[in-house]
Amino acid sequence: MLVAREASLASEEDGAGRWSVDHLFLDQDAVPTIVEVKRTTDTRIRREVVGQMLDYAANGVVYWSVDELRAQFEANPESEQDTSDLLEDPDADPEEFWRKVKTNLQAGKARLIFVSDEIPDELRRIVEFLNGQMDPAEVLAVEIKQYTSQDSGFRTLVTRVVGQTVEAQQKKMGAVRERRQWDESSFFKELETRRDVKEAAIARGILDWAKKCMPSIYWGRGRVNGVFIPGLSHDTIWHQAIGVATNGSIEVQFQYMSGKLPFDDEVRRLDMLRRLNGIGGIDIPEYKVGLRPSFFLSALHQEADLRDFLKVLDWFVQEVRRP
To answer: Is 178 within the bounds of a domain?
Structure first.
């Protein structure tokens, strides 16, 4: 929910606005979200913008009052959305929402998002480090690339989120309300109930492979869907390729790969996509090479298809470990 563009922020009690925050939002959990937008041609994106954002966060949680934020929201002609639209419960009290905003400000719980047409490696490393260390605050970057067809003029925007490493997610999951900690037993029980034993057997085959080849298994904490994400650490960098969920889907995590060698090279990701598309039941459009496309476990119901899928994952591991 947009609170304001160019939101005023002071650096002292009852002081005049010293800074102007590009965009200030509130999410459904009443977490203030500060968004700073820079083009990659702006040299400040590499260092100065980080200090600028930390200034915003450090002073915002101290000098923004909930009454001030509410006044900015109500005075903003663009803020057509009512707070009740954000709440999962239609009978929830909007006043309670604003009380949560106050609580989050007092606790220093905020989200900082850098947005650019390209996120430089230097900024990516800073974002990942800060997001891993800061709690309860969250630091992310969003890269938005634009592709335009010269023939049709059709424009596609492809986004990539930086900073959501598994380690950082694990640290912060404890703060998410009403989350369920999944494990191997509960995952497969739920998968068999919601899908069937055949799909559970396919997922079991993937997990058995992962225990040998990508043995760091992350079990999710979703309220509705359970997930396991095989991972491995190489040269101190965490790598993940897929996630398998209790709704019967396999998510290919190109978005996470794109920030880390060697799959930061789009050619490598396209190579993997084409290898996957060589399997009978999989058909992933090439434009999703920077996203997190998914397909159903049922696409691997033939033993040969499952073997071919695991060969693609073997190739992924080999590429990650290649000197």
So the answer is: no
* Same domain assignment for residues 193 and 51: no
Alpha-helical runs (H) found in the chain: 48-63, 66-75, 94-107, 121-133, 166-173, 184-194, 197-213, 254-257, 266-277, 303-321
Residue 117 shares a structural domain with residue 19: yes
Q: Is residue 254 part of a domain?
A: yes
Mean pLDDT by 10 residues, the chain (323 residues): 86 77 89 89 72 86 85 74 56 76 85 89 85 83 85 82 66 56 95 93 97 93 88 89 94 90 94 96 92 93 96 97 89
Task: State the amino acid at position 322 in one-letter form.
Answer: R
The structure's pTM equals: 0.50
Neighbours of 236 (CB within 10 A): 5
User: Same domain for 27 and 168?
Assistant: yes
Domain of residue 212: give its range: 184-321
